[in-house]
Structures are given as C-alpha cells and as structure tokens.
Batch of 2 targets.
Target 1
Amino acid sequence: MADCKVIVAGAGPAGLAAAALLAKEGLATTVVAPAAGEDPRTVALMQPSIQLLRYLDIWPGKLESETSPLRKLRIIDDTGSLLVAPNLEFASQDLNLEAFGWNVPLALLLPVLRRRAEDLGVTFVEATATGAVSRDGAIHVTLSNSTEISATLCLAADGANSVLRKAAGIATDTWSYDQTAIATSFAHSMGHDNISTEYHKPAGPFTTVPLPENRSSLVWMERPARAEALMTMDDKQLAAEIQIETHGELGLISNLGPRKSFPMKGLTARQLARDRVILIGEAAHVVPPIGAQGLNMSLRDAALAADLILAAKDPGSAGVLAEYNAVRRAEVVPRQHLIDLMNKSLLLGFLPLEGARALGLTAVHYFAPLKRFIMERGLQQTDNLPFAMRAS
Ligand SMILES: Cc1cc2nc3c(=O)[nH]c(=O)nc-3n(C[C@H](O)[C@H](O)[C@H](O)COP(=O)(O)OP(=O)(O)OC[C@H]3O[C@@H](n4cnc5c(N)ncnc54)[C@H](O)[C@@H]3O)c2cc1C
C-alpha cells in the first residue's frame, strides 16, 4: 500500500515546481529533501517558465516586483580571435513579447515555490533519500531518518549526484570543462536598460543579467586557477576586475553581493526514467550556464512529467516512463550538444571551430528568419509546450 501517489526527492526549483503542479490537481505528493542552504545565483527564466509560475498563481506578485525583465540579449565577441564574429542583439519586441524572461534570484524563488507547494497540500519530510526499490507496483524510498515511504512513482529531483538515479540503475555520460563559473551580483553607476550581455571570452562567457535598479547579476566563466584567484580577492579588487571585463559599459562597479564558484561539468542520463523513477532537472541533465538553458529545461521536465502523471491511471507504468523518456530526450540531448559546442568553440582555441562559430553568428546576424528561429528555440517556445507552460 503506497503512502502517497508521488514522492519528489529534492527541493530545488525543479522538485518544488513539480510537487506544486501535482498538488494543484489534488495529487497526494510528498517532498523529501534536506534543509536548504544559501545560493547567490539568479536564474533567467524565459517566458514558458514564467507562464508556469503564473499557472501556479505565484506570478506576477512579489516575484515580478523584485526582479527585472530581460528585454534585449547581446552577444559580444570578446575573444580577441583572428576570426571575429559580429556582435548580436536580440530584442524581445521582435517576437512581440514584453520581455524574453525575468532574472529571478534563487533566494527569492525557492521560498515562494516552497510556500505555494505547502499551501497546495504538499507534505515535506526533512531527510535525504538513501535508496529506492521498485516492488509490487510501488516504489519504496528509504530515508536518512531510517524510515521508508512508498508511492506509485518517484520524481528524482535530487540534483547532479542523484541517489535515486543510481538506485534506478541509470547510467550517465559525464564530462568536465577546464572552467569554473563564479556567480555574484554588483551595483553599477550606469543603467543596464534591461539588457543582458554575454561577452564571449577565451575562457568562456562572462554574462551580466539585469536586476532591479542599477544592479546586475554575473556569471563569470574562467579557467580554474584564475577563478580561484578571483574568489580570494576582496570586493574592491574583484569590482575592479569586473570593471575591466565589462569595458566600462555599465560605469563604475561597486557593492558586490555574495559569491560562489561552480566547477563546470556536463551530464546526460542515458535514460530519463526507469523502474518507477522519473529524472527531472539536474538529476537528468547538467549544462554549463550559457544562454540560460539549465533551469528552463528543468522546469519543462517538471511540467511534462506532471502532464503525463495526471493523465495516467498508474503514473509509474511503463507507458508513462517510455513517453517521458522519448519526449524529453528528443529535446534535451540536441540542446546539450549545441551548448557544449558553443562552450568548446570558445574554450579550445581551435581555429576551425572558432571559424564555425564566427560563421554561424554571422549567418544569424544577417538572416532575419534564422535569428527569429534562434530566439524561439532559445526561449524553448515550441509547439508541444506542456500544459502549465502554455499561455492561456
Ligand atoms: C552559475 C550558474 C548560473 C545559472 N544560471 C541559470 C539561468 O540563468 N537560467 C537557467 O535556466 N538555469 C541556470 N542555471 C542552471 C540552474 O541553476 C540549475 O539547472 C538548477 O538550479 C537545477 O535545479 P534542480 O532543482 O534540478 O537541482 P538543485 O538546485 O541542485 O536541487 C537539488 C535538490 O535536491 C536535494 N538533494 C540532494 N540529494 C538529495 C537526496 N539524496 N535526497 C533528497 N534530496 C536531495 C538538494 O538538497 C536540493 O534541494 C545556472 C547554473 C549555474 C551553475
């Protein structure tokens, strides 16, 4: 006998969103996760993800008033390469959109999602999942507090080192990049005009993303040794480095926020579902932070999983798992390859690859239909959006 219909392991953004989507339709859902820590990252959430927040009745409200819209995205070739790509500018108004998305601090998003999930009746258990076994038409998950809970299905949203992925016997392809990303935020004396800028540099993208008033968040990808040196600098020294890297385009840099570094790696699960376990978020795929794709893909995992679970008599049946695996892999794997290629074209310093990147960006610059196609793909705005992501 199952204790609930669905267990969600992990209370990151993917797990919380999935739990809230299921509970909104009345499904008995339990989230198992340890207490949350601090995270200085912000996430650029594109229109379909914003629509999901609207569907959960937590957008606009506080999330909108304390965040910033992204109306333009710029890509600047700052590689110093022989083969310079033209600078690209994408405007949301070209797609008749108010904004491509909004830049939301995780420190703001996570408590709002959690409160909404609680209001919708999700049960929270503060523990980690230590294992799982599928038996007699149910999944039995063991917890760090020496208890066990059962459900018809488990959503593994327990991050890149997913215990539940391993328990389901799902293999992964993993790789690392000679890069570390530093996430922080800063104030600047000039306005950002709601423009996010991705400076393509030899060690990877250096991306500023607007926050309210004259502040921006930063994801700075660097070689590990240089990143380590930057992490040990005091705020004044780091502000001076940011000043140099932004070429003064945002004026004087000051008032840095907390910072955290992330070694860059990639991961693809070879199957996205098995034995009454469905993988969502970074348990399923990890990509470097280029083009704000990671969490937007993760929320789409959550929304598709919710659609399939809510339509099924047995959410853990082979049919549900097979459909989730087929639909998500068809979307996720090519996207991961593209992000990997873009990152490597900067990182490897390999002239033919740099040439291909310059050529590709030149084509996007001069060919409007291609530019529009790239914008729509970047937004993950496709015809087969899950229900919660469709504009009403
Ligand atoms: C620097 C940086 C910038 C980024 N910027 C963007 C961006 O602008 N836009 C975007 O779309 N994406 C962005 N991303 C990607 C995005 O942050 C991730 O995709 C997202 O945080 C992943 O969410 P998640 O819920 O899958 O995993 P996580 O946030 O890792 O959550 C995992 C959860 O599982 C819990 N957990 C772990 N082990 C267990 C266990 N055994 N049992 C139960 N619970 C467990 C953890 O405590 C946590 O609650 C960025 C990533 C980086 C590194």
Target 2
Amino acid sequence: MPVLSRVQKLFPVPHIMSFPSVGVDVSDTSLKYIQFERVHAHDVNLVTKYWGDLTMPSGIVDRGNVHDIAKLSAVLNEMREKTNAQYVNMSLPEERAYLFETTLPIDTPRKEIRGLIDFRLEENVPLSPRDAYFDYVIVGSDVKLRILHIVVSVYAQSTINSYYDACVQAHLTPLSFEIEAQAIARASIPAQQAGTYMVVDFGKTRMGVGIVNNGILRYTSTIEIAGEQISADMRAVLGDVPESELTHIKNIKGLSHTKDNEHIATILRGYAETIVEELGIRIHYWDTRDIDSEARTIKKVIICGGSANLFGLPEFLSQKLELPTERAQVWANVLSLDNQIPEITRRYSYGYGTAIGLALRGFI
Ligand SMILES: Nc1ncnc2c1ncn2[C@@H]1O[C@H](COP(=O)(O)OP(=O)(O)OP(=O)(O)O)[C@@H](O)[C@H]1O
Ligand SMILES: [Mg+2]
C-alpha cells in the first residue's frame, strides 16, 4: 500500500462515511468497540448493534506504542468475529500525538497548504517530516491580518502504520484514524455546540486531556494518573481485596470523608488535588496562549472514562478549578434518554466515550 493511501486514511472522504462501521478504541489494557445503526432513514435515535470490551494482554500496546502488531491483530480479529465488521474507525493514542497551530496567508491556494505545512513540521514537532503523517484543519481566518488559522495534528508514521497493519492483518479496513479526545468530543459535546470545552478521559492506565474549540481538538496531553494506580494505593491500606470491591468504594464513598472512609478519602483527595493541579496548569497554558482573538475561554470540563465514576470528583473539580465540571453524557448524540434506555449502563458507559464518538462518524 503506497504511503499516500495510508495518509488518506486520516482524512476520510465523505462518501465512505455511509459504510456501516465499528468504532474501535484501543487502550493499553482494553479494546472497546461499538457499532450503531439507524433502523429507518427518518429515525433520530440510533440503535446499538454491537458493543463489547476485550482484554488486551499486557505488552501488546504500551503508552500507545504497538509492540506486537500480530497480537493486536488477533484481538481485532476477535472483535471482527463478534461483529462481522469490515470497516472500522479507530482511535489513536493522544500520548503519541503532536498538535500545533500555525497561520498562512489568507489567499494561500488550497493545493499549496499541505506543502507549506510540511515545511513547518520540523520546527514544531520532534519528528522528521519524512517520518511523519499529518492532518490539518483550517479553524478560522482573520480578514484584517489576512491570515488563516490552522491546527495541525501529527503522528509518527510508524505509529499509524502499526495500527493500520494490525487492522489489515485482521481483515479489517480502517476508514479513519482519530485522536481519542476528538472522538470523545463528538460523543460528549452536543452536536453543533460552539465554544471551548476541556474533555478529560480518566481511564485505567492514564488520564487523557483535550481542549476542543468549536468542535475541533486544539490541544491534547496525558497525565499519569489513573484507576489502576489508585487501586494499588487502596490495596496498600485495605489489603488484597478484589477490584470490584475497590470500584464500589471509589464510586459509592469516593472523596467523602465519612467515618468509615477517612483513610481512603484522604488518599483519593490526594489524587483529586493532583488532578486539579495538572488540569489547572493546562487551563492556564490555554488561557495565556495568544493565538487568535476569538472567544476561547473554557466554559466546561467534561469528564469520562471509567474512573470518572469516582464519587464527588465533578463537584471537587468544579469548586477547585472554578469551572463547571460534569460527567460526560456519552449518549447525548446517539439517542434521547427520554424515550430509550441505552444498552450499556451509565457507569460503564463513561469508559465508552471514545468508542461512541468513533462510531458516530458518518451519523452526525
Ligand atoms: N462502574 C465502573 N465500570 C467500569 N470501570 C470503572 C467503574 N468505576 C470505576 N471504574 C474504573 O475505571 C477504570 C476503567 O476505565 P476505562 O474503561 O475508561 O479504562 P481503559 O479505557 O481500559 O484504560 P485507559 O486508561 O488505557 O484508557 C478502571 O480503573 C476501573 O476501576
Ligand atoms: Mg480508555
């Protein structure tokens, strides 16, 4: 497959969007998939056709790097057998993404934009242009200054090729690759909603952070705090209790300082404080970046990922960050909760934000 064809997978052309495709979220320890269908052309609500969660044996993907393409392909193959899928929209790890913003003269011919950005890669990302694939979006223009504002997302070719090859080995055709936070935004920000949101994916192995402006991902980074680390700290106090019990304590008692939860609440609050600090640094960075003059103040923090279930977390973040913080409504762009009950329970569905967003490609 020529390199260019692979690159084009990053920019799905509209006509292929109508193919029935599965959203596939690959994490270090899990592979989540979901597929929707619109039963009648006029239906507003989508129906969940397939969904599931497969365990990724350790060592296959580490911090977003694929170490064993054949084994990743085996897990994808298992997914294909369960869903009969042919086409997939697949997540790319934010840990391996580089995003930067640049400007070009407003009258730059479309066909020259790519080449001009290519020249700017080297000064903006720690990759040689020869080893990189990139995608770009024109996010606005300034008629007075006569410039276009452009957001560029870049991956090492080796990263994308490894996910691509794993799909092909599993007899799957990837229609698109997308940074996790962009997919989460599609699921959890009401369609066509303008403004700036911070999306936080608080998972099992890491916390992914994205800042999305008018639906477009402008910033992404990773924080090394996650569910499995919190569980390990809880076990140091509680002993070798099963994960389900820890999940129950996290979700029912969480940050609340009740008598029977003093010790654990102190540990969890320590994590919550660090999360506030880390998110605060990123919010400050965003607020002080002088890129363009449009209204870009973050109006809400949206948290998803299984660890978003932590009791008291949204309230804690709202108070300390002085920004409204909510758990994601991951079904908001799929169906109306007034007349349909999603197949995946609320708590579990927070971990499906990325997969849902990927599966929504082509529907909204
Ligand atoms: N009700 C729940 N259902 C599922 N996971 C939960 C729940 N409550 C808390 N969690 C925690 O959420 C984490 C799993 O979250 P999630 O499914 O988002 O992770 P992941 O996608 O597998 O990992 P990654 O961090 O690599 O993205 C676990 O640490 C788990 O303990
Ligand atoms: Mg995840």
